[in-house]
Amino acid sequence: MPYKLITPTENQTWWNYPPNYAYTRLAGRPISGAGVPTRLTDIPRGITLIVNGSTVTAVQTPYQDDLESADYYFLGGHNYVITDQQAAVLIAAGYSECLTPIP
Question: How far apart are CA 9 and CA 98, in angstroms?
Answer without folding.
Answer: 10
